[in-house]
Design goal:
- It holds the Pfam family Iso_dh.
- Its EC number is 1.1.1.85.
- Its cofactor is Mg(2+); Mn(2+).
- Keywords: Manganese, Metal-binding, NAD, Oxidoreductase.
- The chain is α/β, with parallel strands linked by helices.
- It has a domain of 208 residues: Isopropylmalate Dehydrogenase.
- It has 12 helices and 12 strands.
- It has a 10-stranded mixed β-sheet with strand order 2-1-3-12-11-4-5-10-8-9, with helices on both faces. A two-stranded antiparallel ribbon has the order 6-7.
- α6 links the parallel β8 and β9.
- α5 crosses α12.
- The structure holds 3-isopropylmalic acid and magnesium ion.
Length: 377
């Protein structure tokens, strides 16, 4: 039987609720598709930090590193000053595990309400490939004259050919198994030096993918196009900070943060990839069992696709979409069912081979991209 090792990092707030519930869905996928996962719980987050003062320890890193993939809940708590846990755990993991890209689908599923008037599912199916290790996220910079009116802050953005090329190459590969369109999103009119590098990488890597059509959009213009004409985009590749910002907007299009999924992908297999819902720890609703588990379940579907379990990935995506379509509200008590109950419904839909497929499943495309990379060695 195919077997995968999974580190489960539930974290803070609603993280444990959605992660545990998503594991019910994983159980259903394993029984239907004939594979199994060996799971290890890794406790990191606010409780662990408050009890020990630790963030991401070398031991936890080594433990996570022994697994094929990481299923991540959320990190962040009002009991710890903002940013400490996020930088010390999430960003540190992305760096240490060389999770080169953050893959964020923006897909409106049938029957899911969107705040964008007139938007239909056929018009909203794109993927953002966010460079995940550098740009403004390198934590480089300095301050002088702090606390005086002469205070100066320098915050650097680093762009290396190496990291940009691996992100752009993945984006081309993904575009070539999708609708064959890749858009570079940047701000080349102002960030001239970084813009030159990104543009040159796009051209150079593009020589290997002659069938992919490319274009370019400034990040501010992307924010204008995204709500009114998302159908312009198939795969969008962008810098770390731009990707962070535009994918929150993307989440709104597809029905809110509760629905949005992401995968932090390590592309050379040297370390595990990590899959996380975008919604974060949501301390305001934590502990009530009202968090929408769709983001966690769709992240699980991406995890399965990345591990090469394409059929299971597509089934989890389809089951999540089917259950989402019947929800009276995107989150909170008004959903009419608890996080766990919803995952039981999703699990039942995974087990049922009559659940309608989602056409052009990104999760299945991920499995195709992973297989292509493996074949090249
Ligand atoms: C995200 C989050 C993180 C980021 C924070 C929590 C550090 O906003 O995953 O989009 O900026 O990448
Ligand atoms: Mg963000």
């Amino acid at each position: 039987m195919r077997s995968h090792t999974l580190a489960v990092l539930p974290g803070d707030g609603v993280g444990p609720e959605v992660t545990r519930a998503a594991l019910t869905v994983l159980d259903a996928a394993e029984s239907r598709f004939g594979f199994d996962t060996r799971r290890t719980d890794v406790p990191l987050g606010a409780d662990h930090h408050l009890a020990t003062g630790e963030l991401l320890t070398d031991e936890a890193t080594a433990e996570l590193d022994r697994h094929d993939a990481i299923l991540f809940g959320a990190i962040g708590s009002p009991r710890v000053p903002p940013g400490i846990l996020e930088r010390g755990i999430i960003l540190e993991l992305r760096r240490r595990m060389e999770q080169a890209i953050n893959l964020r689908p923006v897909r409106l599923y049938e029957g899911v309400p969107t705040p964008i008037a007139g938007l239909t599912p056929e018009r909203c199916d794109l993927v953002v490939v966010r460079e995940n290790t550098e740009g403004a996220y390198v934590a480089q910079g300095s301050s002088v004259h702090v606390g005086t009116p002469a205070q100066v802050a320098v915050q650097e953005s680093v762009n290396t050919w190496y990291a940009v090329e691996r992100a752009v190459d993945f984006a081309y590969r993904l575009a070539s198994v999708r609708r064959g369109r890749l858009t570079l999103c940047h701000k080349t009119n102002v960030l001239v030096e970084a813009g030159k590098l990104w543009t040159a990488v796009m051209e150079s890597v593009g020589e290997r993918y002659p069938d992919v059509e490319t274009d370019y959009v400034h990040v501010d213009a992307l924010c204008m196009h995204l709500p009114v004409s998302p159908e312009r985009f198939d795969v969008v590749v962008t810098d770390n900070l731009f990707g962070d910002i535009v994918t929150d907007l993307g989440a709104v299009l597809q029905g809110g943060l509760g629905v949005a999924a992401s995968g932090n992908l390590n592309l050379d297999g040297a370390h595990p990839s990590m899959f996380e819902p975008i919604h974060g720890s949501a301390p305001d609703i934590a502990g009530r069992g009202w968090a929408n588990p769709a983001g966690a379940c769709l992240s699980l579907a991406m995890l399965l696709g990345h591990l090469g379990e394409g059929e299971a990935a597509a089934a989890v995506e389809a089951a999540t979409a089917a259950v989402l379509a019947g929800l009276p509200a995107p989150g909170g008590e008004a959903m009419g069912a608890s996080t766990q109950e919803l995952c039981e419904r999703i699990a039942a839909a995974v087990a049922d081979d009559a659940t309608p497929e989602v056409p052009g499943s990104l999760m299945a495309q991920l499995a195709a991209v992973a297989a292509g990379r493996a074949a090249e060695g």
